User: Fold these one by one.
Assistant:
Number 1:
Amino acid sequence: MNKVRTLEMVDYVRQRKYCSTAELGRIFGVSPATVQRDISEIVRNKLLRKVHGGVAVFETASDAIVPAENSRFEDRMRINPEKKSSIARQAESLVEAGDILFLDVSSTALFLARQLQKSRLPNLTIITNSVSIIQEFRLFPAQFVLISLGGTFNAYLNAFLGKAAIEALQRYHINKAFISAAGITPNGLFTYHESHAEFLKVITEMAKETHALLDSSKFNKNALFAICTLADLASLISDVAPPQVIESAVRRVTHAPTS
């Protein structure tokens, strides 16, 4: 099974609400047998529902159990909010007056952004490609500065990505970058979106410090595209301690105190 193709099929169907098996085979240039195998995998993962002659989107959000790592942004905001809030509070303690921050497009970074809305720091610059953070910047302290990055809009990540976003990014200096991922293993951080991986690779190369914000549901989960190695991280911030094999590979690990 070609994972990239099946994810592209899901995107294609979600834009149209319904698609026949024959159309999917024609659009993606594969045989009927291959389409049936891909559809079986898509349905098994509850990304779409099987209907007569093809596949369709779920009629209501409650009908599907969408994997968090590849769901739409608004759905991911409803997953593990307590864990993300805990991570955001810990991450805020690393932010200092005068910092130039990069906040990525993850739901956890938005939780950090909302934590910073209450900050009393005298000045702070935030660089982001997150549409949600850009839209909420009116709620930040008046003395904070926002630099928004344009590019190609990605609806699933609610973000600007692509060559234009990278070119805009490279104009700036970044003290601290706060990023997330679909999963973390001893081999590094991973995402399901190629353009997202390319963008975050540039971030980790540019930033003086890169801090990963990952709740425990992401531990030992892999995805299609590598973002960076654990050696590239200044710290991993989570709700609980990660597995020892991950913790030993990161320079610093921060997690909520156990009760």
Number 2:
Amino acid sequence: MNSDKQLSDWRELALQFEQQINRIVLGQQEAVRNVMIAVFARGHVLLEGPVGVGKTTLLRAVAQALGGDYQRIEGTIDLMPADLIYYTHLDRQGKPSVEPGPLLQKGERLATFFFNEINRARPQVHSLLLRVMAEGSVSAFNQEYRFPHIQVFADRNPVEKEETFELPAAARDRFMMEISIDKPDENTVLDELIFNDRFHDIDRLIAASETGVIPYYQLNDIAAQIQQQIQPSPTLRQYAIDLCRASSQPTAYGISLEDVDMEQLILAGASPRGMSYLIRAARVRAWLDERSTLLPEDLQAVFHVVMRHRIFLNQMYAYRQQELIPALLDGMLQHIAVP
């Protein structure tokens, strides 16, 4: 099949995928679009938001639409790395038995892995998950298990801080996007979610939706084609490099924030890997808009969700992170010349 025709057909599937999820998760169109971009850019996603706003429903809807196998694990203070790989129990004869854990149960069919409340898990667990995200494999029982189609979604509740562990920089950098899920503002959406019993039984709601809208086992190939088809101009390449430099040297671009010593603000800016994620996500956005050329608006549209968890502030400003990071990112977009 012609490559352009194939990507056009896949674009139609992607839009069907988006529409299906928006029928299940109301009032989260921007978050749904970003999740879809991450899926076609083959990037892992970190969701953040309070309890009860639809994070789990969103991920279950994504897993249903992708097909393949779905696994979920709960982050707890006593969770150990081995719990992701195997569990022990007594069989019917009362003898100790070892069974595959959530990572190994589905084998190579594992497409969506959801880590609920990841910040409640220990750093040792984060380290194991980091390898799975980075390499798509894990070692167990003297052999290597590979997950060629795995996409990791994790969430964290920003309200409760007791018995939680902050994700290390290396783990956060492996997530392509950090997407905020907030309570919908529109009264009509709230009325539907509160009073329409269709949204009260999540199992029935998910089961009623179509499965396998997107063939998960073809995503890697299609994602590679998208990245090859959408090309940036030389001036846009320089724009991306300026954005990268500004994330660690904002004063060099005339960026300032009120009541902030800009020379002391940044501990670490975005890495080249982080910027490559930005380009990957922007290319998918351009593809969805039926373009073969990358534009500045593509980078700007995904800039916050790709960049906000990649910039680390010095300790004296870390407590103001929720306020300063968005302001800094806005300043970067405003002060750096657009080609």
Number 3:
Amino acid sequence: MNTLHDDVYAAAADWHTRLTDEDDSPRAHAEFDAWLAADARHKAAFDAVDQAWSSLSAARVDPRVLKLRREGLSATHRLHAFRFATAAALIGAVVAIGYVVAPSLRTGRTHDSAMILPASGEGGAFRTAVGERSTVTLSDGSTVALNTNSRIEVSFTPAQRNVRLLTGQAWFQVAKNPQRPFVVDAGDRRVTALGTSFDVRLGEPGSGDSVQVTLAEGKVSVEPIRSSFTRLILPEAVPELLTPGEALIVSNDAPTQKRKADLSKVISWRQGQVVFDNDTLAAAVAEINRYSATRIELADPRLGELKVSGVFAAGRSESFVETVTGHYPILVATREPSRIVLGAASRR
């Protein structure tokens, strides 16, 4: 199969962006005509980019996907070892990496269930399997949505409402009660709220034991969990206060970060979606793997440097693999019931 050179696609993507969004002047069109006439491959590349964009627009794709794809078309992320085209240009950007998450895909292998903690219990343990989501309604009216492979323990007292996130990720919608704080322990951090909405995610084992807290509304404070001995020998730690739209990331491998969060990306899992915005393929694979018992692996670490943007349905590893292999120079090297290994396709 003949493949157009990546620079030709990159140039075509730049021309498409310029003529559509930036400069529709006669001079621009004259320069564009000269570029088309210079090489027969130019028209083929431009037509491919234009067709991909038109297909997405006609399909009434989520505006976020269109935006990500537009940004991707002008990007120049290349893996030089393979001389790949720009991530977005070769794949028609987010046709795939956008697989417009239709209702039929959203239900995929990931499904919702609901659990109610009886008022008389004031405690309990709850968990989800890989690819499952569940919502727990607590006795005070608060709700906890559990993402894939997550586990919590609930222990309420008259003075305080306590939840411990042991694994995975959870979304908390807290009922207001100033006399009874709502406290979430995750890793070595304690999150305290009165009435608010926030997301807490624990890193996977071996990832530096990270904790990420993202606030959607209200206020929360985040502080280290300290033993009695630590409190005796060290001064009190100053809690980190978050405002809506902020995220705090704590890891053993890096300094603590507080930054503005992309809330739609952080909580997309609640709609059964996984959102990537110029993420590496390695990071995308790791995220997709959270939702499926079938593990995707990259045979060559260099493949992981490719950039991915778009929206996928959580729990559909096969669709992700089909997308990547269909639009990148990547092939399935090994396919087993429990794992799929992706390798680089040879250039011809």
